[in-house]
Amino acid sequence: MSLDAIPIHVVPPGEPGLTGNAPPLLRELLEMVRRLLATGEASAIDLSALPLTPADLDWLRDKLGAGEISVTLQANGESTLNETACPGVWWVMHHNEQGAVTSQFIEVAFVPDLVKAHPQDVEIGSGYLELLVSDL
Amino acid sequence: MQGPLIDTLARRGVTRRTFLKYCATLASMMALPPTAGRAMAEAMSAARRPSVIWLPFQECTGCTESITRSHSPTIEGMIFDMISLDYQETLMAAAGHQAEEALHTAMKDNAGKYLLIVDGSIPLGQDGAYSCIGGRSNVDILKEAAQGAAAVIAVGSCASFGGIPKANPNPTGAVSVSDLVKDKPIVNIPGCPPIPVVMTGVLAHYLTFGSLPELDDKGRPKSFYGDTIHDRCYRRPFYDQGKFAKTFDDEGARQGWCLFELGCKGPVTHNACATVKWNGGTSWPVESGHGCLGCSEPDFWDGGSFYKALSAPADPLKFAAVAAVVGAGAGVAVSVANRVKKSAAKATHETTTLADLEK
Lengths: 136, 359
Ligand code: SF4
Ligand code: SF4
Fold this sequence. Notes:
- The structure holds 2 protein chains of 2 kinds.
- Chain A has a 5-stranded antiparallel beta sheet with strand order 1-5-4-3-2.
- By secondary structure, chain A is of the alpha+beta class.
- Helix content of chain A is 32%, strand content 22%.
- By secondary structure, chain B is of the alpha/beta class.
- Chain B folds into 3 domains: 220 residues, Rossmann fold, CATH 3.40.50.700; 84 residues, Cytochrome-c3 hydrogenase, C-terminal domain (Cytochrome-c3 Hydrogenase, Chain A, domain 2); 46 residues, no CATH class.
- Helices cover 40% and strands 10% of the residues of chain B.
- Chain B contains 16 helices and 9 strands.
- In chain B, the strands form 3 sheets. A 5-stranded parallel beta sheet of chain B has the order 2-1-3-7-9. A two-stranded antiparallel ribbon of chain B has the order 4-8. Chain B has a two-stranded antiparallel sheet with strand order 5-6.
- The longest helix of chain B is centred in the C-terminal third of the chain and has 17 residues.
- The C terminus of chain B is likely disordered.
- Classes of the chains: A alpha+beta, B alpha/beta.
- At the A-B interface, helix 1, strand 1 and strand 5 of A face helix 2, helix 15 and helix 16 of B.
- The complex binds iron/sulfur cluster (2 copies).
- The site of one iron/sulfur cluster has 12 residues of chain B, from loops.
């Protein structure tokens, strides 16, 4: 029997709407971007830790817009790291294998850490390349 | 299994990015600043395995099941593997005298440094004879093992508060770890059973920062037990609108309304079910249509019927006011919003305990 056979329809209790918690985040982002430019220091806002409604998140995403780069990472479920219309501001979403959002951040960085290859991993890659070359 | 954790994970097909992603989410769940995820990943991937001794007392093994059994090998499971679990009766291959010897060797070699995990309550009746291992009572073993421990982690409601063995009339005279151990730091991870990630979170915190996380007045990590179920329940808007299911099969139940009148103990229960959920984030009791039983609070079994509504707090307006305060806090200082919210929630809820339940 599939779950659909159980007649429970959860009705969303009306759009909770905007709480006014999103606009201050834009100000905070501005500070973070300025800091990135001045010192090169990357930073992030943890969106799941804040009392934001879906409407707030939509508003924020809409304001920040979409940029040129979107990165998809397949690691224990999909993660997306999308640059917004403000270069250096990335909307980062982590999903688990079931597709549920496990955490959500706005990252301010030239390149998000997760995208960069780690030197130790590069070393492993170089070992593999050496192997390929030695087989030539 | 030796060497840094990252190598162990790599051997099991877990990439560095998977681990970084996991740590970012864990840090977020633990209400640590976003940058902590990276620090955690770095510290943990290089961490040395701490010696852990796990003593099971008057328990049902449900807590061990919760943490070690999942459908697929989870990172939780692997972090659990990274500790040097020197004694765990359910999982260890050794038995009898061999097992007891392993326990004593671990205690001697790592004196003052090992983490002691306890699940189950400790019976004091009949000089502790109700539960013995290798001819020694639980209370004796606990006292000996606690002496050399760096800290004690009480896993599950039984070890934390006495749990079901302690339920009225408590035939074995069961008590909690903190009733007996007074001179060591103790972390309580209650729940019947506790959520696996809470346990990983405490271990991760210990491995990363070399210290235990911040605790509430009942010895529970604030990051997971700081909010009530009700604070974070997705049915909360129905509560605020006064829409309650009256029976488990009425129209309200079908519409997914609040389960308060069906006995939900969410308003007085501090746990992370509403956000972390169960079974790899699949669902949780309230989402499955049943009220919260209050399993992570002391004496939840004696709190009256699971199906009788809480007598207090019953004023939806009071909660709406808290929600407004939360909003204001977030507007002022976003980075501390979570903590502001938590303390606001704490201040409002701490006056109502399970003892206030209608008997
Ligand atoms: S009473 Fe229970 S079901 Fe209702 S909002 Fe609170 S936690 Fe959710
Ligand atoms: S919903 Fe309540 S009773 Fe159920 S596991 Fe969570 S805290 Fe325990």
